[in-house]
Each structure stands twice: as C-alpha cells, then as structure tokens.
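Give me structure tokens for this 323-residue protein.
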Amino acid sequence: QSTWGKIIREAMVRAGIAQDAFIHPFPIDLSVAPADTLPKSRSPCPKCGRSRMWYCSDCLEVMGDKSVVPKVELPVMVDIIRHPAEKISKSTAVHGPLLSPHIKLITFPELPTYNPSTTLMLYPSEDAKAIKDVDLSQYEKVLFIDCTWTQGAGILAHENLQNLTAVKLERETTAFWRTQRVGQDHLATIEAVFHFFKQYHCQRLQLPYAGEFDNLLFYFFHQHQTYIETQREKVQAFMQTDEYRKREMKHAQQAPPHVVDRITSRAQRASALARVSKKPRLGQRSNEGEQAEEQAEAQAEEQAEEQPKAQPEHPCQTDNDHK
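Here you go.
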C-alpha cells in the first residue's frame, strides 16, 4: 500500500498489464532445457512455407535444429482430442507431439475406437475419480480433451468415448498468461499433461518425482518468459511518458516528507539501473549484472543521504505518525 507501490500499479494498469504478470508461477525445482536452443528469428516452415518462430502449429513442424529440442519419454501413449473450433496457433496442445513421440493430436470428430479396459480419460466430470483411486497398471493410453468448457459436452457425447474411466487432477494452479473467465485451477492442455504424468509417476511407481517430465513444459515455459519480458518493456515504456511523470509528481506532492524521500531515492535507483543494463531473464543473472546493481544502489543511497530530512512538527512526533 506504499505510495511507490501505487505508482507502479497505476503504470501497469494503464499499460494494460495484470498486476501478477511478473510473479513466477512455476515450481521452484522445474528444470527445462535452456532457451538458447530456440531460433532467434522467424523462418519459412519447410512444409507450408508460412513464417514461423519456434514451430509451425499447422504442420506440427519444429523450426531450426530439431536435435536440440528435448524429447520426453512417457510411460503410456497419449491422444489429445482437439476441437476444430479451437484456434490451433494459440493452443498448447500442439506442444505435446512436438516434444514427445508418445503424444498424438487428433481432431474431433474423427476419433478412433478406444478400449475402455485399457484407456483412461482425464476430464473433471462429475463421476471422475482421483488418480490415486485408480489402478494405473492396467491402462496403456490416456486421453486429454483440448476445448472450451462449452465444447466439452459435445466431445464427451461421442460414441467412441463412452464407458471410459475418467480421472481428475488434484488441484493445481495454471501459469497460463492469457485471460480466462474460469478460475486459476483450470489448466492449459500441456499443463494438464505435465501434471498428470507427474502424479502418475508418484502413484504408479511409488517414487518421488525428479523432473522426468519437466520438458513437456519446454515451449510453454519459454513462451511465458517471453511474455514477461514483453510486459516489463511495456511498463518501462509507460514510465517514460509525461502522463506517468505527472502522476508520480502528484503522488509526491500529496505524500508526507519522509515518503517523498523514499520515492526520490527509489526513482534514482531505478533510473541508475536502467542506464546500467537491462534486467536479465529469470535464472540467468550474471556477476556483471549483480555488480552493476550494487553500484546503482550505492549511488542512490548516497544521493538520498545528501537530501535533508524533514523535521517532525512536534518533538514527540515520529515517522509512524504519518503512516
């Protein structure tokens, strides 16, 4: 609730950025292949010729050097059933077949016949069971549904999906950056695949999870990091506008003297950091960047100490009385 925090929040709102955009939503121990293996620019898809960055979602074709893209081995086969009305370029379901030879993408309504005794379906229907309550040893294939909630009923009504055992995940929180009207416990398709096999590993093998399926989130994680960088640049751009400076001065004029000192000190530090270097990506902090930040902090503290502090109006009045 500090004045400085209000200024930053206003900058984010006016730049069209969610206030939790910079929160790291992934497990702390998540380990995916580094982003330096990904192409840095667009190139034509070798199959359709369209300009693509990391992959072609229409052709399911990896762009650049395919040998550096991680391949994830899964204990059972996976079919992801995709509704044709879903825009494939925005679907995370395409990440599956690009990252694992055991995942196949199927477009509804052309579905194969499934054996109920060996096929499991992940869908949070009313009769869905928890994964821990199912004998996983008998199942050879798992189905995932890639659609909106309104489209789900139509897919589930397909004759080839009747009599299948449905299971649901324990409550997980999505890291998906696109706005959705449902709650944060509704996952993107590739997130659901990842969390299913993470729970499958612990339940079926009775072993602690050690990152065996982390690279299922390879594209998803790095797309999220790209989104973070884009939002950060929007905030930095807005903080250079006259509108932002006017609001900053307005807050400073209305704030008590000790708060003005803090705003000034932090503004000087932010300005110094911006001149030194751009903030590195998560997990890629260099020694040079740390030294630059320490120098910027020291410079800001020296400038703040040179400014005279406002004296209390009464001998017994302290900073706490202003808060």
